[in-house]
Structures are given as structure tokens and as C-alpha cells.
Design goal:
With about 220 residues, the protein is mainly β. It is about 10% helix and about 35% strand. The chain has one domain: Galactose-binding domain-like (Jelly Rolls). Keywords: Signal.
Amino acid sequence: MDYRSLFVVPLAALALGASSAESYRVPQGWQAGASFTWPASTTYLTGVAPEADTPGQRVLTVKSVGKRQGSELGALWQSVNGYSGKRVRFSAQVKTEGIDTWAGLVVRDGYLPLNLLPIDISEPEPAANAGSAGCPDWCEVSVVADIPAGGWGAATLGLALLGNGQVWARGFKLEVVGPEVPLSTHRFAAEATAKVRAEIAQKSAADTNTPKPPKNLGLH
């Protein structure tokens, strides 16, 4: 395969099947995921925007439900392989509304689902987990990342929203680029990761210093 050629991922080709104004349909070839709450509830709506689910204008969207924390996330993504040792650029037109943390495109090496990234606090390298934020109105956004040599040459790419608001994206493209194209330096979910770490440390300190007596020893 000639990896110098342009790889285009048209949304219209991926979004197959009947549309519904009442639901967010995940298009064929894509996966969707969101932060988990207990008890279980819907945290994000993910899929093709119902108002734009017609041939020629389909748009992916992620929308928060209720009040979300900055470390919570909703995402749509797909994984590819065969890019070992390549520098790739993932691009689309992206629009956002009501964002209070971060929303945009993401590229990372490997197969890890994007909805797991906010708790993925062990990876130090920004290139393994890069993102580029969207705009209040439609704008061209791209993320450039190096895929390590060896293995399957796998990469996961998609659209993600941290915290509250809604993000839309259309006109997706994936292409192999040369070394002259600079890498994206923003580490996706870095702020959320720092917040999660701080919350864990704070809770651990509180748990250590605050006695918690047993409950209902009389078995009432």
C-alpha cells in the first residue's frame, strides 16, 4: 500500500442506514462511549446529529446531558492500522457550543477507546495522545501525530468532548504527511487528567484523616 496517498474518510460513506429525529445514530465503522455514572445514567449523546442525518450533509456530534464534571467525557472514534512509523494528520471542520473544558479532534497511537483517556494517567508522551480544539463557528481543525514503528501501526482517531457543551464535526480526512509538518503539541485530556489526580489525592487525604465508624452494628 502506498502510504503517501491521501486517505479520505467521508462521513457519508460511513453513516449508513435509516435516520431518526429521536436518536443519535452511531454510523457504521465508528464506536461511541462516555463516562460511566453510578447509578447508571446517560452522560453524553453521541452519533450523527439528527438534524443533519441526510446524504451529503451528515455531521457527527457529541452532546453533554445534565451537569458534567470537567473530567467526564463523551467520544466517537474508530481505529486504523498499517501506519507503522508514519506521521499522520487527521482533519475535519469542527464547531462547538457551550464548552467549559475541551472539545475537538483526537489522535492517539494504539487501539485504546477514546472514552478511557481521561483516566489514562500513565502515559508521559504528548504525541501518544494529541488533540486540537474546535471553534465557536465552523473552522478547519487538524491533529498531527507520529505512529510508532513496529507492531500493527495502529492509531485511534475521533471526536471528543470533555465536560459540558456540544461539538459537531464534518468532512473527515486522514492522510500521511512528511516530517516537515509539525506535530500537535496539545495533550488531549491533560487538564482532566490533572484534575482527576488532584481529586484522588484530596479524597485519599480525607479518607486517611477522617475516622469512619462502622454502620448498623445492631443489624436493625
